[in-house]
Fold:
Amino acid sequence: MAISAIKGMNDILPGDVETWQFLEQKVREVFGAYGFNEIRTPIVEKTELFCRSIGEATDIVEKEMYTFADKSEKNSLTMRPEGTAPVMRSFIQNRLHTLDPVNKLYYMGPMFRYERPQKGRYRQFHQIGAEVLGVENPMIDAQLLAMLHHYFCEIGIDSVQLQVNSLGCPECRPAYRQTLISYLESRIDTLCGDCQRRYQTNPLRVLDCKVPGCKEATREAPSVLDHLCGGCEEHFAAVKKHLSGLEIPFVINARMVRGLDYYVRTTFELVTDQLGSQNAVAAGGRYDGLVESLDGPALPGIGFAIGVERLVLMKGEAKVPAKRPDIFFATMGDEATEKAFVLMSQLQRAGISAEMDYQGKSLKSQMRRANKLAARYSLVLGEQELESGEVELKDMDQSSQQKVALVGLVSLMGQLCSSA
Ligand code: HAM
Structure:
């Protein structure tokens, strides 16, 4: 039996890959304008990195990581479930803060989580992420969200809503957590089994539970925004003010719960109603304290990650067209085929995409292929054309033709393609 791909891990085929390239190109353009530089880290890291950063009591660390011992059996390794922790590890290891007090980094690549696959949720998925290290000023929170907003405008997706929240800090969150635990305790019998088990270790997750009983039980739950300390309240107020100043639309969602433990203060999600239950297209927040907890310098940080598969699903029908060849050579006879082969190579070297038939097909079938590939121009090369040194160059869009010399074809095609 033929071997198939692993469940939840998908091929990205020609025809779809153009959309991915478009999304990646726009990242380079937009993020570049905001001063971000690309960073690439390994797919596999020491397991401890994720346990210490994402948190032992999270779904990711508890049940979703692809973890294995390497051949020495001494090292526990994990395929990265997200990009922030590896970037922090690299930032600390390479002492990037000594090169510049402010680091703006972005990355694109595959992440791995052993989740139940469904539309918009996969076991290998891709993130476009951005992280800013070294700035506490709430202006950077707003700037990062402005960049996210700008990116979505550039790629033509506007059916998303930006939701923001503040999760407080180590000063104010413990008291809120305790208040929430006491509240949940008073309704323990109405919570689902999962929540009864986790409300002590991860009470915020209960706010996010989809089970109707839990939803009902938490309707009146105390809000984190009513329990912020002075510093967090001020920070959140400034983020909102700057967002309004930049005319970035947003709503407050005080029940937003993030599945990773490193967040403090500002958290946010870009949500859509187009993807069923997997409604977050991008998410992130501030993680002051994370770098220090990984034995790096005490520097604040904030970032986000976009789920690329979800972007692609949302772009849907509005696919970026596949690259069409600039010219297709249809040939008759061995000599003409060889001449076309050389001409094709010269054109390709000049950056003009050219195609031909390699299988000795009939002229009719070659022209069918030229049409299928949507070639911009085609020409038929046979004995007669070789002798006269001239060919009919057919403009496939206009259905018009012109006689052109074989000598100078490369420069002529260069002119035609650059003016198209
Ligand atoms: P996250 O919320 O776990 O955050 O993931 C960010 C985004 O990745 C999600 O909003 C979603 O679009 C996409 N995503 C997550 N899991 C899957 C999956 N199984 N299949 C498809 N898409 C998925 C983080 O990963 C943080 N590192 C974000 C961040 C960066 N925070 C600060 N900096």
Q: What stands out?
A: The pocket of histidyl-adenosine monophosphate is lined by residues 82-84, 113, 115, 120-122, 125, 127, 129, 131, 259-260, 280-285, 303-305, 307, 309-310 (CB under 6 Å). The CA atoms of residues 129 and 282 lie 9 Å apart. The two ends are 48 Å apart (CA to CA). The chain is about 40% helix and 20% strand.
